[in-house]
């Protein structure tokens, strides 16, 4: 039986993760903003489920809730940094408040959570952190620039910290789902459209989202099954794309980056101190 600490569990992947883990007999400490959202699960599995209130934009609360969780559980095997949402609209259209909230939730919220759990994981001799990123942590759609900034940002943070804490037997799995059927689409924070963007790619994505033409192939339950499978592996990959959309988009983007790197190799090497003129 493993013990898990999960953020953002009121709906979507976070809630399904709680359900599947409780069904298989694990112990879950679920954090959420809306107390009461997991009352049905508490009624069924109250002996193995504990809920704690946490808004991940509240840095002080993160430290307090993480300490409370480790005191209650003594050992926590897997931490899942899942809480997040998308801000949609052209970068120019977003208000400073919208940008701040997006960064505070997905990026700095995840950073503070990871920093808060590390001393506890070191003290218990190790542990695993699952960061829910997105295919959008490696590729970019027009209209999601701030969301991508958070997911690319957290992936860079995690890749670096993973190297720092490997000597303490702490490891990471970055989960990168493609578009998946959860409350994500309804939960999007939207900018106020500017007329000048009407005939641009960002507006095309806006129209595709509104008309249902934006293809969502990811199954939330299967995504969570794959996340659990990865978290159970002895040696999981640092990054795991989930869903055929994520596979196709990431593979195309990586191939293009390698192609471009090679095309401009001569310019790249020309910057060395000992480069031949
Ligand atoms: N669905 C997709 O297409 C998709 C694809 C790739 C990655 N993801 C990622 O998957 C994760 C989960 O999203 P989802 O698809 O399951 O969407 P979801 O159903 O909207 O769930 C998002 C969860 O995050 C919580 N949350 C949002 N802001 C929070 C905050 N400040 N503090 C604490 N909790 C907060 C929400 O709580 P409230 O109910 O209180 O708002 C909710 O429980 C996110 O990190 C998202 O970026 C989703």
Automatic annotation (TrEMBL):
Pfam families to which the protein is assigned, alphabetical: adh_short
Keywords noted in UniProt: Oxidoreductase
InterPro entries: NAD(P)-bd_dom_sf, SDR_fam, SDR_oxidoreductase
Transmembrane residue ranges: none
Gene3D superfamilies associated with the record: NAD(P)-binding Rossmann-like Domain
Family designation: Belongs to the short-chain dehydrogenases/reductases (SDR) family.
Protein name according to UniProt: SDR family oxidoreductase
Gene source species: Pseudomonas agronomica
Upper taxonomic lineage: Bacteria, Pseudomonadati, Pseudomonadota, Gammaproteobacteria, Pseudomonadales
